[in-house]
Amino acid sequence: MKVPRIELQPDLDHCIETLARNEYERGLRSIRAGEGDEYLAERTEVLRLLLETANFRDLRRESERYLLQGRKVTLTVYMDEGAVRYKLQVS
């Protein structure tokens, strides 16, 4: 199974870290309730790694700068060579 690419779209009320944490916790709840599948397990693992390794202070500062300008921000999270990677896109 291909490891999922995850897109998080922060706004002025919900930063990237909050969105990632909420998605991670939602995944854990589903898995514990027996509702998860392999895709959900892998997605939840990618989010766990993001939460453990990302510099959320810098991500928050950069994304808020664009959000205050009225621009849309998307953080794409993915695995590459066994490590979590992410890219901030602004439109």
Q: How would you describe this structure to a colleague?
A:
It is a single chain. This protein has helices at 16-32, 38-53, 56-68, and strands at residues 6-8, 73-80, 83-90. With 91 residues, the protein is of the alpha+beta class. The protein has one domain (6-90). Strands 1-2-3 form a three-stranded antiparallel sheet. α1 (16-32) runs antiparallel to α2 (38-53). The longest helix is centred in the first third of the chain and has 17 residues, at 16-32. The radius of gyration is 13 Å and the shape is globular. The model has no long low-confidence stretch (mean pLDDT 94).
What is this entry, summarized?
This protein is α+β, with helices and mostly antiparallel strands and 91 residues long. It has three helices and three strands, in the order E-H-H-H-E-E. The protein has helices at residues 16-32, 38-53, 56-68, and strands spanning 6-8, 73-80, 83-90.
